[in-house]
Amino acid sequence: MSLTDTPAKYGSAADTEATGPLGRVAIRGDGGLKVRGGATYALEQSVENLLHCVLVQATIGAGRVVSIDKAAAEAAPGVRLVLDAENSLALKPMPDFFGNTPPGDTYVPFARDIRFNGELVAAVVADTLEQARAAAALIEISYEEAPAVPTFADERAGEGRAVDALAKEWGEPDGPHAEAGMRFAATYETPREYNVPIEPHGLIAHWEADDRLTIYEPTQWIDGTARNYAGWFDLPFDNVRVLSPFIGGGFGSKAQGLPHSAAAAIAAKMLGRPVKLAATRPQTFTAYGGRPATRQTLTLSATKDGRLVSLEHDAFSETSVYGTFAETLGVVTKMMYAVPNFRSRQRIVPVNTVLPGPFRAPGKNPSAFALECAMDELAIELGLDPVELRRRNEPDHDFETGKPWSSRRLLQCYDVAGEAFGWAKRNPAPRSMREGRELIGWGMAVGTHPVYAAPGEATVRVLSDGSVEVLSSAIDMGTGTYTILAQTAAEVLGVPVEKVSVKLGDSRLGRAPVAGGSQLANLMTAAVHKTAQAARDELITLGLTDPNSPLRGEANTLLVEGGTIGASRGGAIGIGELLAATGRDHLEVTRDTLPPAERSAEERQRMFSTLAGRGSLPEATVSKHSFCAHFIEVRVDEDFGTVRVARVVTALDAGRLYNPKLAESQFKGGIVMGIGMALLEEGVTDPRNGRILSSNLADYRIATNADVPEITAISVGEPDYDATPLGGKAVGELAIVGVAPAIANAVYHATGKRIRRLPITLESLL
Ligand code: MCN
Ligand code: MOS
């Protein structure tokens, strides 16, 4: 059973509701191009006269560059420029996503004071990549080394600082709680994790004139990226063009301006020639920080019959010594269950690392790991089935905000996935199920993801042949944006999906929020829907009122369908005919989804400039989240301690699905990444100098086909128009949340061993 062929009752809420193309399975518009190699990625752009840039990085964990001897590199064949802090152009400092701005009046992407191993120190630009690489090896750097504290496992890292904005408390977390018959506490840990998109970071920077910059770079946020370059080089927004039509995955790592991007753009400007920079795989581990390591202590108390009385959460995550990033660890603990007394606190611990950042369900993912393992442990202590414990604590509203849920079909997730999995047949005793040498474990856990709000802008063009174009600076990093926006326009304008072409990934097009926080689909389908409706209304007005319209004086409304327009199907004329008669070859409309009160030019700028516009929209009166429940079978080899995931059944409530096939692929992708998180992924750092030892795909292991079993993803979502205009909720990052604890819980059930630290390795089981 899968999402695309489940019975009508579940799995196809979108399908059964759908009358037009939106909500149905449509094949990827960009699929053919990708299969045939016709999708040109950033670094494949053919730009003439290209030079190649190679990075030189610090080899110490902390300290100072004393001197750099560039002479040999400068004299090497083909070398055009060797850049470092001394001769680099200085840029304007720009804040990152989280408000960290480099100190001082100017910003240079090359360091003298070294804060982490791998920090950018110099760059070499040469005619060929090989020449640049050879010359980079000739650069001699001498350092004055200082003690590095590379991870928060190092005692010297200390306890860090409290992030007050993330602290939350209600009820009386300190008690007394006479009714609590059971108290449980444990500490859970997750390692550093890296995004490792298959397409590494990189860019081509091309100055057409001294004040006109074109950047080909994979980015999850075209608009923000263009604004960042404009800021760095003090240029008007319109003088910068960022192009990113195809992206080979980002998973959170491609939404910010990073030092290597500045370096390439500086080199291109100084040399007056286009420069290409392709980060190597190891460099992607130092270009962007990924998820910081986390440590969380949860203390739960409950009545003997399993009602939570209090929950206390103390969380730590790493940040960099030069910036603040908080992995929001309380995010799931705060809203998942009915908890009358609650406290969550978080501290961030600065260490010598590149600044961490968003990584596949930031906060949600490790938060759920701790909470959902602790719930499993509590269920065992209480002698309750883990699903039953969760049912008893299902909240009728959001305890964090006090607001009602826009929708929450988690109980249905338990019913549907539990049944499809066969949970009722589970013997709760650990080590009670086996087949030959293999211990069998069944575990479950829940996941959730918030539904965010931000404005978007889209352009819709109706052409004389009845075909439609949708234009936006939104991006598609493999998610399906091209396809669902075509479906949306097709739905409104009554044309087949194939008649709609979608153009994305160009900063010249309408403004779109970041493809982060699993929000883009809901925000941009809403923008395109609204714009397409406006285009339809303009066509109708044109038909009814233009003096040269053949439809003038018709009944008071016209039907737009199948490339025609008319009062009835019989009397309809081609849209092209109407456009020609009224003297145009196309009709173009641009609209945005800004609230009417925020329409002034300044408000507009503010709304689109703040991080994805979040928080600036009127506060929602409901609490909006997607939910899912994972049921997972593992097989553990008793002799070798190897864990294999044998079966995954997940039911998900993500509201209405705009394209069940694409959503299913997102869900399965999330589950695959969750398997990696549970069993494989671990960023390992040299404790002496902070060098990342696992900076390649052999040592930093992600789940591959051999690690992935049959996955069944069942949608129980129904359109939620309180969450978003078209009824969808968050999809992209939902399904990863809860997979790792479900696996840890299954491993406990199989072996009787509770592993509270990821990844679960054979060493930890032997
Ligand atoms: N969708 C749907 N119905 C909905 C919502 C979404 O059918 N109600 C489908 C659409 O195909 C849509 C996709 O799911 O294109 C993802 O939509 P959404 O949840 O809005 O996520 P975004 O478009 O904002 O994409 C970002 C999200 C994030 S934050 C990460 S991290 C992540 C993810 O998407 N990175 C990805 N999925 C990824 N998938 C790929 N292939 N590569 C990445 O880097
Ligand atoms: Mo996703 S980590 O929010 O880009």
Structure characterization notes:
It is a single chain. This protein is an alpha+beta fold. It is 24% helix and 23% strand. The radius of gyration is 27 Å and the shape is globular. Residues 4-17 have low confidence and may be disordered. The structure holds pterin cytosine dinucleotide (MCN) and dioxothiomolybdenum(VI) ion. Pterin cytosine dinucleotide binds at residues 197, 249-252, 360, 477-481, 484, 515-522, 654-659, 662-663, 666, 669, 728, 730-733. Dioxothiomolybdenum(VI) ion (MOS) is lined by residues 220, 251-252, 358-360, 362, 516-517, 733.
* CA-based gyration radius: 27 Å
Number of separate strands: 28
Spans of at least 5 consecutive residues with low confidence: 4-17
Strands of the widest sheet, in order across it, are 3-5-1-13-10-11-12
Please sum up the structure shown.
With 766 residues, the chain is α+β, with helices and mostly antiparallel strands.
What's the topology here?
Blueprint lengths: L12 H5 L13 H5 L15 E7 L5 E7 L1 H5 L3 E6 L28 E2 L5 E7 L2 H8 L3 E6 L15 E2 L5 E3 L11 E9 L11 E8 L2 E5 L5 H11 L7 E4 L15 H13 L3 E4 L2 H7 L6 E9 L5 E13 L20 E11 L12 H19 L3 H7 L17 H12 L12 E2 L2 E13 L6 E7 L4 E4 L9 H13 L6 E4 L16 H26 L13 E3 L2 E3 L6 E2 H7 L4 E7 L8 H9 L15 E13 L5 E11 L6 H20 L30 E6 L23 H13 L10 H4 L1
Parallel strand pairs: 1-13, 11-12, 15-16, 20-21, 27-28
Antiparallel strand pairs: 1-5, 2-4, 2-6, 3-5, 7-16, 8-16, 9-14, 10-11, 10-13, 14-15, 17-18, 18-26, 19-20, 19-25, 22-23, 23-24, 26-27
Helix pairs in contact: 8-9, 8-16, 11-12, 15-16
The structure holds pterin cytosine dinucleotide (MCN) and dioxothiomolybdenum(VI) ion.
